[in-house]
Amino acid sequence: MSAASTRQADGTSTFRFLLTHRRRAQGFREPLVPELTMLWIPPGRFWMGSPATELGRSEAEGPQHLVQLQGFFLGRTPITQAQWRTVAEWKPLAGEARWQRKLDPRPSTFTGDQRPVENVSWRDADEFCRRLSHRSGRHYTLPSEAQWEYACRAGTTTPFHFGATIIPDLANYDGRTAYGDGPTGQYRQQTTEVASFPANARGLHDMHGNVWEWCADHWHNSYEGAPTDGSPWLDENAREDEWRLLRGGSWIDDPHFCR
Q1: pTM of the predicted model, to two decimals?
Q2: How is the chain split into domains, by residue range?
Q3: Are strands 212-218 and 13-14 parallel, antiparallel or unpaired?
Q4: Residue 11's pLDDT is what?
Q5: Which among 144, 145, 131, 149 is positioned nearest to 208, based on CA atoms?
Q6: Contacts of 63 (CB under 8 A, 6+ apart)
Q7: Cα angle 93, 118, 89; round to 5
Q8: Which CA distances in Å does 32 have to 26, 54, 78, 90, 124?
Q9: How, if at all, do strands 140-141 and 18-19 pair?
Q10: Distance in Å from the first CA to the final CA of the chain
């Protein structure tokens, strides 16, 4: 599965977030934000990274390594523009400290309440998590790359959670380009509303395509020395503007980036 890195926001980057909490149910709704559903991802282990034979693989996707994870909750979809706007427009309540960072309530190029928010930086996404954690009393964060890939794979070992290839009926990407011997198809040239395509076996939507998703980790050129417990891979002496990690590909990308 492919990854990318950047310091900046662009029209293809957004996020979904994670809650570290004891399991209460298969999922729950966060009442402070409209239609925000968190789904339980059970504990388990998986081989992270791509085999050397996988089409489109880069050196950054290896070596494959076994990762053991605790269970966690993950957002059912990327954050929508309506959800983003709700939190971005919050004002500190009496007794609350000022927010650490100002958030633009309407940053997206392709507008629509149910479309994913885009043009948000890693620090914007982190601030969203901080605000919601503070206001809700729960600990929301960006997922680690290992958590993201484990949740995306949902027990599969193929390049995509739905199989060995990808078609535009299953995800939003540049369908003019085929993945291997797979078919070509529609290029929508914009984001689509979240959950427009089938979910994976865990009930998660838009893990492939539509918008790149921020992870908590710093960027590394390979998995040599990566954590094996599912925690974010952070560099202790990293600069504030150090490159962060994106996963999942987007509407503008060729299919091999969506792995």
Answers
A1: 0.93
A2: 1-259
A3: parallel
A4: 56
A5: 149
A6: 49, 222, 223, 224
A7: 15
A8: 19, 42, 17, 11, 19
A9: antiparallel
A10: 4
Distance CA 191, CA 11 (A): 9
Angle at 238 between CA 229 and CA 57, to 5 degrees: 55
What are the helix (H) ranges across 154-238? Answer: none
Mean per-residue pLDDT pooled into runs of 10, the chain (259 residues):
53 72 76 94 97 95 98 96 98 89 98 97 96 94 98 98 97 97 97 98 98 97 98 92 94 97
CATH for the 1-259 domain, from 3.40.50.1010, 2.60.120.260, 3.90.1580.10, 3.30.450.20: 3.90.1580.10
Six-digit token string for 60: 């950054």
Q: Taking a C-beta distance cutoff of 8 angstroms, is the pair 145, 152 a contact?
A: no
- CB burial class (10 A; 0-12, 13-18, 19+) of residue 8? exposed
